[in-house]
Amino acid sequence: QVQLVESGGGLVQAGGSLRLSCAGSGLTFNMYTMAWFRQAPGKERESVAASSWSVGNTAYADSVKGRFTISRDNAKNMVHLQMNSLKPEDTAVYYCAASLKHGIRWFDRYEYDYWGQGTQVTVSS
User: Fold this and answer.
1) Phi then psi for 108, rounded to 5 degrees?
2) Are 20 and 83 in contact (CB under 8 A)?
3) β-pair partners for 69
4) Does residue 24 have a pLDDT over 70?
5) Residues 25-35: what's their mean pLDDT?
6) What is the pLDDT of residue 116?
7) Taking 80 as the threshold, does the pLDDT of residue 54 lie above it?
8) Mean pLDDT of 106-112
């Protein structure tokens, strides 16, 4: 079965950095669009970043552009999210997601077939 497991979350002060990792099993990463979503208490799950399997294009939500970087190591079935200049509003559970669909709307959570359990990121002010 396909499994995605996130790690690297924690508690940091505003302005700090974290690097999230997603380890996959039961899938070949180079065939998937990989993405990070996040969900804060009382809010809907929202897109953060995505990395296309086709060309290697990346996309980011406006709220994190310039601060977050998604990267992937297909040989190791790993995807990462480097988060810099963290803000309290970045506080959320962060989820790794994967999709085999072509030409997906990267920001749409319903395009993704597989999800990890999430890792908590808390940014204090």
Assistant:
1) -95, 115
2) yes
3) 82
4) yes
5) 85
6) 97
7) no
8) 94
Stretch 36-40: mean pLDDT, rounded?
98
Residues 6+ positions from 44 with CB-CB distance below 8 Å: none
Helix (H, G, I), strand (E, B) or coil at 36: strand
Residue type, 42: G
CA distances from 94 to 5, 61, 103 (A): 11, 14, 23
In one-letter notation, the amino acid at residue 55 is V
Distance, in Å, from the CA atom of 47 to the CA atom of 108, rounded to the nearest integer, reads 7
Query: Between β-strands 119-124 and 10-13, what pairing exists: parallel, antiparallel or unpaired?
Result: parallel
Q: Residue holding tokens 């990890």?
A: 116
- Residue written as token pair 């296309």: 52
pLDDT at 29 exceeding the cut of 80:
no
Q: Is the four-CA dihedral 8, 31, 67, 92 of positive or negative sign?
A: negative
Q: Is residue 98 a contact partner of residue 116, using CB atoms and an 8 Å limit?
A: no
Residue 30 pLDDT > 70: yes
